[in-house]
């Protein structure tokens, strides 16, 4: 059974930093791109970052570029999101997810196949 | 602007058919994926590549895509289908893009 378990959320002041982690199990982790998607309270879904297999490519949404850093550890089957210079508008539940696709073109047509339960990040003074 | 548009809400009676649309320039020529999110839970993939269902998703949930509009159809709606539904496409410069979501209410 695929499992994704996020951790590291909490309350942080504006300008602060936080590191989220996602522990994966139940699938061949090193064969899949991993992503973070967030959801502000009462709002929709927003993709924020992805890391491909072997960390060959890393992408960020404009809203977090330069402030967030994604990384993966295939030996530990985990993916982290280091968040710095946090803003009030970064308040959201952060989900870890697996990117899957047909035909190998995940970076153009992929879908988020499985999701963790999410971890809440609150940025407030 | 390049946005993915969904109706904010759709309401149907039990047993009826709900159709949720996903439209916009980015939908044309793209593969559309759909997620269901029940209250307080994480999203779950229900359709990928316009019309393919993952294992465990019932046949009464189906998807289609034509022109600028993709449609998620839920036939024989049950109270358990109440949820927010999000479509997702890819933009060549922005990466994955989600629609704003549609709240399905079972009357």
Give the tally of β-strands of chain B: 9
Q: Specify which chain pair forms the largest interface.
A: A-B, 24 and 24 residues
Q: Over the alpha carbons, how many angstroms does the gyration radius of chain B reach?
A: 13 Å
The total beta strand count of chain A reads 11
Helix and strand sequence of chain A: EEEEEEEEEHEE
Q: Describe the oligomeric state of these chains in a short phrase.
A: heterodimer
| Total number of helices of chain A | 1
Poorly predicted sequence stretches spanning 5 or more consecutive residues of chain A: none
Number of helical stretches of at least 4 residues of chain B: 0
Order of helices and strands of chain B: EEEEEEEEE
The average pLDDT score of chain B comes to: 95
Percentage of helical residues of chain B?
Answer: under 10%
Biggest β-sheet strands, sense, barrel of chain A: 7 strands, mixed
N- to C-terminal distance of chain A = 40 Å
Beta-strand content bin of chain B: over 45%
Label the structural class of chain A: mainly beta
* Anisotropy-based shape of chain A: globular
**In this structure, how is the largest beta sheet of chain B organized?**
6 strands, mixed
Strand fraction of chain A equals over 45%
């Amino acid at each position: 059974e695929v499992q994704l378990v996020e951790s590291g959320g909490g309350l942080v002041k504006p300008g602060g930093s936080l590191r989220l982690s996602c522990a994966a199990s139940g699938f061949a982790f090193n064969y899949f791109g991993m992503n973070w998607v967030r959801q502000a309270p009462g709002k929709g879904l927003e993709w924020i970052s992805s890391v491909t297999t072997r960390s060959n490519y890393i992408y960020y949404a404009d809203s977090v570029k330069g402030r967030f850093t994604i990384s993966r550890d295939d030996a530990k089957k985990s993916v982290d999101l280091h968040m710095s210079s946090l803003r009030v508008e970064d308040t959201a539940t952060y989900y870890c997810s697996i990117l899957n696709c047909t035909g190998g073109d995940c970076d153009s047509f992929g879908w988020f196949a499985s999701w963790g339960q999410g971890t809440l990040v609150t940025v407030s003074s | 602007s390049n946005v993915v548009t969904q109706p904010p809400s759709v309401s149907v009676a039990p047993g009826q058919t709900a159709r949720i649309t996903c439209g916009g320039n980015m939908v044309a020529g793209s593969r559309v994926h759909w997620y269901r999110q029940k209250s307080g839970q994480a999203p779950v993939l229900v359709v990928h590549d316009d019309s393919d269902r993952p294992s465990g998703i019932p046949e009464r949930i189906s998807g289609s895509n034509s022109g600028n509009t993709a449609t998620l159809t839920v036939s024989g709606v049950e109270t358990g289908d109440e949820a927010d539904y999000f479509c997702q496409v890819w933009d060549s410069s922005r990466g994955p893009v989600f629609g704003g979501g549609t709240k399905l209410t079972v009357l």
